[in-house]
Amino acid sequence: MLRKESDYAHYWGLPSKQLKIVGLILLIGWATSAWIYSYMRDHSLELDKINFNERVTNSNSALTARYNSYVDLLRGAASYYVSSTRVTREDWRTYVDFLKIRQIYPGINGIGFCLPFTSIEQHQQFQHEIESESLQSQPVVNVPNVTAPENHDPLLKHLIITHIEPLDINLSALGLQLSSETGRLHAALSARDSGEPKITTRIILIQDGEARPGFLLYVPAYKPGHPITTPEQRKQAHLSFAYAPFITELFVAGVLGDVNPEQINFSVYDSDSISLDSLVYSNITNREAKSPFDFDQVRTLDIGGQIFTTTWQRGSEYKGGSLYTANVAGVLSALFTCLLAFAAYNYESLIRSKKIIESTTEALTATNQLLKSEIDVRKTAEAEASRSELAAKSANEAKSDFLAIMSHEIRTPMNSVIGFAQLLSSSKLTSEQHLWASYIQSSSGALLSLMNDILDFSKIEAGKMELENIPFSLQEVIEYVTGSFSIQAVEKGIIVDTKVEGYLPEYVLGDPSRLKQIVINLVSNALKFTDKGSVTTHLEWIGSKEAGTVRIRVADTGIGIAPDKVDDLFEQFTQADLSTTRVYGGTGLGLSICQRLTALMNGTIHATSPTSQGTTMVVEIPFSVSKEVINTPIQEVTPTDANKTTEPLAKILLVDDNDLNQQLGLTLLGQLGYAVTLANDGAEAIKLTKQTYYPIIFMDCRMPIMDGFDATLEIRKLEAADLLPRGAHKKRIAIIALTANVSSEDKEACSRAGMDDYISKPYQALDFQKVLNTYLDQS
After folding, report:
1. Quick one: 226 and 300 in the same domain?
2. Looking at the structure, do residues 217 and 137 belong to the same domain, yes or no?
3. pLDDT digits (tens, 9 = 90+) for 82-118
4. Domain count, the chain
5. Could you give the CA distance from residue 179 to residue 241 in angstroms, rounded to a whole number?
6. Residue 140 is part of a domain; what is its CATH number?
7. What are the pLDDT digits (tens) for 248-283?
8. What is the mean pLDDT of residues 603-620?
9. Residue 109's closest CA among 161, 177, 160?
10. 558 and 658 part of one domain
11. Which of 7, 95, 287, 402 lies 20 to 30 Å (CA to CA) from residue 570?
12. Which residues contact 427 (CB under 8 A, 6 or more apart)?
């Protein structure tokens, strides 16, 4: 028999209307709870999936970045080898020790060089070197237990590993003939003919006692100055390979970091198919005993011409935490519905309902704690990112320090080359010998200019470029630039001039040297690509007498640029087309540096160039007008004729640790009529100043034992304590820095040490004469 609604109400002791309200509350509340649970579950699972995919993408990117870092390492090694006349194994060991590959480049087994032997003399010389170094009894060996290739390229018939470091773990690979095994040979051929880095198919390294899967990475090196546009040209210009051996599992290890395999399963296969035969790495030991996973990811990577497949699976202990939050939210919503229903059941049970609400509040607190934990995890991740950023900053600072050292080390011999070339040109030579000397000067000047461009570009990239803010004359800077090209213009039969359009302030505030560098680049480019006609620099002021923008237009009547190539002009290492590089030369760095310097000065640069109708480069840079009047006395700088006097003009102390630079300075100052005393380091300079009064000291900044900065500080202390011999006029000793670096930091360092002025390397007699005229009393 069916019961009526009133019967149920009587059974519960409730009126029929109240039972309807309770039932409606339960129906709506539980339906809402189900919707909340479903929505949060789907949203959380989707968020987990996105996070998991992002982790997969980041790890694959880290794997690719690791490979690219090894490629950059080998390219640097190739450049070192090609630029050196001869690299002994001791040189190579010193170079590799400096790189600290074991600390900085995890997963690499070593780096070395392999050379193609094309004559019996090369074999004999290599054998003699190995035997003389007592490294191993058999200098050249084939890859064991493999079938040799049937067809050999004549130029790579004998490809021998001649250098490899660290040698203690790679000794068995020294002298290995890579062309005796198919995979090693084919990868070498592909790298040589394509000009790109390539890796071998799976191999077993001869030096790996555990016979684990591995591969070799080749980076080809070519003869400097040879064309390498086509495969045939690259084949003929090929010189050697920089190479590195890898054990695949060590190469891959560390990409995920310290992750429990039960959370994420990660495997790598060295093919585009997934099978146990192609498996080279996995972070789980028993691949048959797997728990079910929620998500799978399969990605393929092209690394050095070889396809790798990575698989990712969420383990049974993957800590996503997604469903827990959804479950808690659904349960709490259902509980809240029940609380409302209970309240409707009996108005007199408010105290019990209050306790239930309090228990629900505790559950909400637990949820808040869960959210707090998730926030703590995110903060930990942010802290890790901050540490990574700090590490990257430290690496960038190390790069800047390296560039500063290289600048000094390169400029020091360049100083001797340029200085002695100038001395040679001023001596009695035949016309042909004068021509040769001019070639030396021109080439060394071009090399110095290229080095300056590379250093400037690196400083800008590292954010280390600093600008001065001093008063200077715009017109004087521009006229100086155009005047410096007058001889070159006359030789080409081209008119180079400057036109000032309208009002131009007398002085502005800014960095004159960097503005000069920009305009020199633009005028030099215009002159290079103009065979007839003119190169005109237009100077225009847009603004008021307080501040404004200078517009500099360098217009030529040269070959012009195609419209579709104009936007590429300011890209680094880029020119209008390859034929331009072949005909006119250049690195493609000049305009890129101009653009970045202009941006640093809050300006803009662009080009307009109808093909075959010339090119106009337009630079616009804002300046404030300087109220300060610059009173720069015009000083005649005339070299002293040493033949007109029998007595030296003054005693000069020259402090430099480089023998050639000492001889150069001794010669230049001697020709000016000065008596020069030489010191090899700062300590020796202090000793000499205690014995003899020198009105002026030329001090090199970087020296062994004691550098120029410490020596200057000590001399100033002795001078202040009146412990040094003094001249008749009791004047302060003038100390002039000889430095290869002329950045603002170096200028400040010279000033802090107590130096009065500086001469930048490379220097010439005129540089010495200017300083001597300023700081010596010639009377």
Report:
1. no
2. yes
3. 898 888 889 999 999 999 988 888 889 999 999 998 8
4. 4
5. 13
6. 3.30.450.350
7. 888 887 666 666 666 787 788 888 888 887 788 887
8. 85
9. 161
10. no
11. 402
12. none
